[in-house]
Amino acid sequence: MLFTSYNFIAFLLILFIVYYSIPKKYQWVLLLAANFVFYSFSGWDNVVFITVTIISTYISSTKISNLYSGQASFLKENKGMLSREERKAYKDSIKRKQKLLLIICLLFNLGILAVLKYTNFVIYNINNVMGMFTNVELPFLNLLLPMGISFYTFQSMGYIMDVYRGKYPAEKNIGKFALFVSFFPQLIQGPISRFDDLSKTLFKEHDLDFKNISFGIQRILWGFFKKLVIADRILTAVNTITGDPDNYQGIFVFIGMIFYAIQLYADFTGGIDITIGIAQVLGIKVQENFIRPYFSKSIKEYWRRWHISMGTWFRDYVFYSVSVSQFMMNISKKSRRKLGEKIGKRVPVYLSTITVWFATGIWHGSSWNFIVWGLLNGLIIIVSQECEPFYAWFHKKFNIGHTFLFRLFQVARTFLLMCSLRILDCYRNVGISFRMFCSMFTNWNFSQVFSGKMLEIGLKKSDYYVLLAGVIILIWVSLIQRKGSVREKLSLKSEFVHYAVYIILIVAIITFGAYGIGYDSNQFIYNQF
Amino acid sequence: MEALLQILSDLHPDIDFEKHEALIDEKILDSFDIITLITEINEEYDVRIPVDEIIPKNFNSAKSLYELIKRLQDED
């Protein structure tokens, strides 16, 4: 059931009415049932996979948590009776058992994800290698990829790692845990929530709150506006340009990459707006996933503001885990001895960075495009880290860092850098992506922009006007957001203004929505991840 | 404590680490700094900071970080 379908809107309306009509203590049970209904629309096979993840994670995390409480009781009962060594040996034995449970759970669930998502990619590569020596080809497998598997698997694995690290005890109620893993608004494109954060409001009893409902609806409408008016409109142009690399080169690659930046932003943040808005109507607080990322002044800052929940997931559970492992500490010692203090101490950080960005790349998709995209991100972060002394010297020497023009330059540089990397998202393979990137500098066909070719990429003049207005509104809202919540500001205005905003948004979505609600060919881009 | 302050000031010479108490909350230390710190501490104090100790409370000030090192040394 797509967010942009009539079915989904009917489903939401029924859910909202029933949610606030039943006794509050059953609200979370209703949400669990709603998740089940929502998910079953995508096929019963899918339900089996998410159920397996829920049950396996629940059992393992409960056992890990029980070991913690057993340890606490044992140490309390035997206080003063154990030597320091005996205490340490006992704690170590508990930790070993917990680690074993964690590893089994991680391997099992990440194994499911890996098999379903990457088997055909592995077969593709094996065939490529075998093709050099023989004509034999392995057949591709027809594997099901359950909806939102990357998101719910990461959310559950984050949960069990938190339990293992003693951040909080495991949830005892399997129904509540199942609700956390399968919460339908965030199931298909995130954010990847943390249990200690989402559970504060997810299981609570909620009164009908007019502010939450009006703010939530505004956010949902804003999401639909971004998705239907901007993202789905510009999609055709992006597909036309990137789908025909022989015909669209040079300036069109540049236009395609800027259009894709607009499409991706409107699509992904629009989806997240709908998610956060639905949750807010239900009285539930879902964390923000974007903080105006295109205003970032460096790539590091960009990744702190774009898809935040994914970035922090990789930081907390992969980057830190890899960096502080005994293996990496040994590498650190060796590299210091062999390469000297200055370079040696950076080796573990940079190796971990490359590992994380490789994982981030492959998480986004099972193709070399995404792997190269991830590794290039890591490489640029490392290079800019290395250049920091130079930046510091530059700012000290020229003292222009605070000027508006310089900040604008930094924002434009970061935006264009990220756009360039995203060329890898758009084209069929890595070779074509690099060829198209180079064509921007070698194929000077700027005049074609004014020869009518811009009207051959699936956009009419009227579409350009709508897109221009849409993008101006996006930038305008983002600029206002820097000084606080737009909806809070709006709530201070008169009733007339409130209703005018609702009506304008609804009319804009209906009138200018690229295909109208219910057109179901355009999934949200992040659904596929 | 002197050695720890030296490690910290090598990372950010412009910060007064004896006084600052919100190094994580105010985003002075990022994830790169934290890992560099952990490897330096491992080298200097022969203490391995486990991943579950990487929480803002332990890294917000030089004092809290030093207390963490002492606690981990005692546990060893």
Strand content range of chain A: under 5%
Q: Oligomerization state of this entry?
A: heterodimer
Elements of chain A, N to C (H/E): HHHHHHHHHHHHHHHHHHHHHH
**Cα Rg of chain A:** 25 Å
Low-confidence stretches of chain A: 516-521
What is the count of DSSP helices of chain B, taking H or I runs of 4+ residues? 4
CATH architecture of chain B: Orthogonal Bundle
- Alpha-beta content class of chain A: mainly alpha
- Global mean pLDDT of chain A: 90
* Low-confidence residue ranges of chain B: none
Strand share of the residues of chain B? under 5%
CATH top level assignment of chain B: Mainly Alpha
So how many helices of chain A? Answer: 22
Q: How do the helices and strands line up, and which of them pair or pack?
A:
The complex is a heterodimer of chains A (529) and B (76).
Chain A: H1 6-19, H2 27-40, H3 44-77, H4 84-130, H5 149-164, H6 174-182, H7 184-187, H8 195-202, H9 210-243, H10 251-281, H11 299-305, H12 308-323, H13 326-339, H14 341-344, H15 347-364, H16 368-386, H17 388-398, H18 404-426, H19 430-442, H20 461-481, H21 486-491, H22 495-512
Helix pairs in contact in A: 1-2, 2-6, 3-4, 3-5, 3-6, 4-5, 9-10, 9-20, 9-22, 10-18, 10-19, 12-15, 15-16, 16-18, 18-19
Chain B: H1 2-11, H2 31-45, H3 56-59, H4 62-75
Features:
heterodimer, A: 529 residues, mainly alpha, 3 domains, globular, B: 76 residues, Non-ribosomal Peptide Synthetase Peptidyl Carrier Protein, Chain A
Question: What does this entry look like structurally?
Answer:
The complex is a heterodimer of chains A (529) and B (76). With 529 residues, chain A is mainly alpha-helical. Chain A folds into three domains: 21-205, no CATH class; 206-286 and 460-529, no CATH class; 296-426, no CATH class. Chain A is built from 22 helices and no strands. The two termini of chain A are 17 Å apart. Residues 516-521 of chain A have low confidence and may be disordered. Chain B has a single domain (2-75), classed as Non-ribosomal Peptide Synthetase Peptidyl Carrier Protein, Chain A, CATH 1.10.1200. Chain B has helices at 2-11, 31-45, 56-59, 62-75. In chain B, helix 1 (2-11) runs antiparallel to helix 2. The relative contact order of chain B is 0.19. Chain B starts with a helix and ends with a helix. The mean pLDDT of chain B is 88.
